[in-house]
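User: I'm new to structure prediction. If I give you an amino acid sequence, what do you actually give back? Let's try with this one:
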Amino acid sequence: MPGSDPGHWLHRLDAAEWLAAAVTELAHAEEKLSHRSVRPGLTHARRAAGMAWNAVLVGAADERYGRSYMEHVVALATAADDDASIPTEVRAAARLLKDTPAQPIGLITIGKPDMTALDAARTIVDFARTRVAGA
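Assistant: Good question. You get back a string of structure tokens that encode the predicted 3D arrangement of the chain. For your 135 residues, that looks like this:
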């Protein structure tokens, strides 16, 4: 039921559409981070994770995860260590997205750009895709 409620923040898209939006955000994050545009790249990575989590919430609403993409990331990052429904690597990925400063610190290093935020977002998107498929 795509667009079952166009006025509702969560139900304006179905799970597949939220996952597709997350993949688009991953592509934007990759493009920005590959050009060392840290702030927009990190924002896109966080948005990807949040949109993917919206796909999970469409099928199983849970107020603990909040409404915004950053509320989703923070909730995933702070999920209790004994909560088996959120794997350790997903919590770690969310913590990285939550704790990474939007401005690069100090000097710009020579070499490959830092893509850890993108990798973290992909971890969350992949987990969300698995949860949606298993629901």
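You can read the tokens as a compact description of the fold. Here is one thing that stands out. The mean pLDDT is 90.
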